[in-house]
Structure prediction request, 198 residues.
Amino acid sequence: MTSMEDRYLAGDLDFEAAAADALGTAAVDRQLLVPILHALKEATHPVSELSAHDAALLRDGGLEESPIAVAAAVADQQVRMARLLDTALTVDEVAGLLGVSSSRVRQRVGDRSLWSLKRSHRLLFPAIQFTSTSQVPGIDSILTALPSDLHPLSVLGLLTTPQSQLRLAGNELSIIDWLTAGGDTSLALDVVAAYLGA
Prediction:
């Protein structure tokens, strides 16, 4: 079997299919690729806004400017955000899962004990905060401790990245895995405090 790169170069894959393969997704929406095209066209990078001295410091540290790297980072961010939204639950789905009314779900959005994202006048709830039968135990305390303006991908990363402070049987666990396993919420809150204080 040939590699994705070989199939792309041979014309067997179009760019969208190759990008989807490279990113490990079933498909990549063409709209998600527009920032890549812009970055390539402009061939700019935020580092270009730095002074010559600061840009030199970054280069000396091995961080070269690269429109391709910027485009790849933008595409990765877009794909991760799309995955987060694609797997999110609706108000009615959350109400059914939690056994409460839709108005109670909206109340919990107001007190930030449920993590929601507003898209096209709809509330969507990232699935990571739920088990198959309920909300992850203690996650409401974590969510209320987070700033309301924290980017959704930052929240996702914080909740799903294994933490050295949260160990079970010698393994580092993410906040979600820690709480799902019955871990102490106060230790997870310590991780959040350290993250916010950094």
User: Anything to note?
Assistant: The chain has a mean pLDDT of 85. The longest strand covers residues 163-168. Residues 4-86 form one domain.
